[in-house]
Amino acid sequence: MMKLYYAPGTCALASHIALEEAGADYEAVRLDFANKNQKAADYLAINPKVRVPSLVTDQGVLSETPALLLFITQNYPTAQLAPLDDNFALAQA
Ligand SMILES: N[C@@H](CCC(=O)N[C@@H](CS)C(=O)NCC(=O)O)C(=O)O
């Protein structure tokens, strides 16, 4: 199962919404920035950029929001999160 690492009030919300809208099977892992969870060694092993979001997949870790959104969109086409039959329209989205 995929794991989304996020922190409240951050740009990870976009990926979180996309996973929910897609009906994806995933676990959301909340990081507490006030307690510097993003700097913990176990998280740095997932994302050395010290940032959220991170999406752990069977194929590896994605850690840039546009990449996560494209990956989710392409992997759940029936959710129709963005147009997949028009590359320009997809880029605009
Ligand atoms: N280029 C990254 C930016 C990620 C980013 O800047 N995340 C912020 C939250 S929006 C973060 O994790 N900051 C860490 C911190 O404040 O310590 C993306 O598009 O996902």
SSE order and pairing:
Blueprint: E1 2-6, H1 12-22, E2 26-30, H2 41-44, E3 54-57, E4 60-62, H3 65-75, H4 87-92
Parallel strand pairs: 1-2
Antiparallel strand pairs: 1-3, 3-4
Helix pairs in contact: 1-3
Bound molecules: glutathione.
Glutathione (GSH) binds next to loops.
Structure summarized in a few sentences:
The protein is α+β, with helices and mostly antiparallel strands. Helix content is 34%, strand content 18%.
What does this protein look like?
With 93 residues, this protein is an alpha+beta fold. The protein has one domain: Glutaredoxin, CATH 3.40.30.10. Helix content is 34%, strand content 18%. It has 4 helices and 4 strands, in the order βαβαββαα. It has helices spanning 12-22, 41-44, 65-75, 87-92; strands spanning 2-6, 26-30, 54-57, 60-62. The protein has a 4-stranded mixed beta sheet with strand order 2-1-3-4. Helix 1 runs parallel beside helix 3 (65-75). The protein starts with a strand and ends with a helix. The model has no long low-confidence stretch (mean pLDDT 98). Bound molecules: glutathione. Glutathione (GSH) binds next to loops.
